[in-house]
Design goal:
Layout: E1 2-8, E2 13-18, E3 24-30, E4 34-36, E5 40-42, E6 57-60, H1 63-71, E7 81-84, H2 94-106, E8 110-115, H3 120-127, E9 134-137, H4 143-149, H5 156-166, H6 172-175, E10 178-184, H7 192-205, E11 208-213, H8 225-237, E12 242-244, H9 247-250, H10 269-273
Parallel strand pairs: 4-7, 7-8, 8-9, 9-10, 10-11, 11-12
Antiparallel strand pairs: 1-2, 2-3, 3-4, 5-6
Helix pairs in contact: 1-2
Length: 274
């Protein structure tokens, strides 16, 4: 595995790694101290709003390949935090992800996760680990709508039932590190009814909401900044703690949903940015 090239964005720095089998994955350095790493070559969930799963799942990354994303760039950029939020579903490669997590923690790094929540048995283990944050990607609570947005993500009813059973077992401090991630897509999941349902669940579970801003990587339309702010204020009015997408997550290089997988010769950044 080697670092094949670096792409500088307005805010982020994107790293492209060539693997031994000639596939390539990406990681992004943002916020001045955080490296978002990939955990799989592709992703089986195939979220319709994300470039990372366009080719489906090719294979899991080994624990060593996950760690090498950090080791190959740590001399170039400062890294204090690792986000398991790049290409792939970390829970679907749990043995290798857990091994890499243990090593990152041994190195003194803070580690956070983004996950769709399945397999649930792995989510159960994850939320009890000494992590620094877990965001569970919901994006839609309606079963049919979630399936259209996230074709292979798992039943939201099962996910909600799991959270209702498991979160009360966590300490208050541990629970504060969990949030429900919700990517707003114009005309799809942004109605007041859907946001009210999300707020009701967040209050019941006593967790916050990470309200993500859609980057143009597919056929969907995104809200205007004003509409995005209105959704934020509406959730706040319902008594929910809401975190907004930072400017780093909106950057055209390395922003949420923009990371891609492929052969080194055919990674086309313009395809993602169109």
């Amino acid at each position: 595995m080697r670092l094949s090239r670096t792409i500088e964005g307005e805010l982020n720095r994107l790293f492209v790694f060539e693997l031994e089998d000639r596939f390539a994955v990406e990681a992004v350095h943002y916020r001045g101290d955080t490296l978002c790493v990939s955990t799989q070559v592709g992703c089986h969930v195939r979220c319709d709003f994300c470039a990372s799963g366009r080719r489906g799942l090719i294979r899991n990354l080994t624990a060593r390949e996950i760690l090498l994303q950090y080791e190959l760039v740590r001399s170039e950029v400062p890294v204090k935090r690792i986000a398991m939020a790049g290409i792939g579903e970390p829970l679907a490669n749990w043995r290798n992800v857990k091994e890499a997590f243990d090593e990152f923690k041994r190195l003194g790094l803070k580690v956070s996760f983004y996950t769709t929540g399945f397999p649930l048995k792995n989510l159960k283990e994850l939320i009890h680990l000494p992590h620094n944050g877990v965001s569970v990607s919901v994006h839609a609570l309606d079963k049919n709508k979630r399936k259209s947005l996230m074709p292979y993500s798992g039943d939201p009813d099962l996910l909600v039932s799991f959270l209702r059973e498991e979160l009360p077992l966590l300490t208050k401090r541990k629970k504060k590190k969990l949030s429900l991630a919700y990517l707003l897509i114009k005309g799809v999941n942004d109605s007041r009814e859907e946001l009210t349902r999300l707020a009701d669940l967040a209050r019941e579970l006593e967790v916050g909401v990470t309200l993500l801003y859609y980057n143009n990587v597919s056929h969907y339309s995104r809200l205007s900044p004003q509409e995005y702010e209105e959704a934020f204020l509406f959730l706040r009015s319902l008594g929910v703690k809401v975190t907004l997408s930072t400017r780093f997550r909106k950057d055209r290089i390395g922003g949420c949903g923009t990371l891609t997988v492929g052969k080194p010769a055919d990674i086309d950044r313009e395809e993602v940015m169109a």
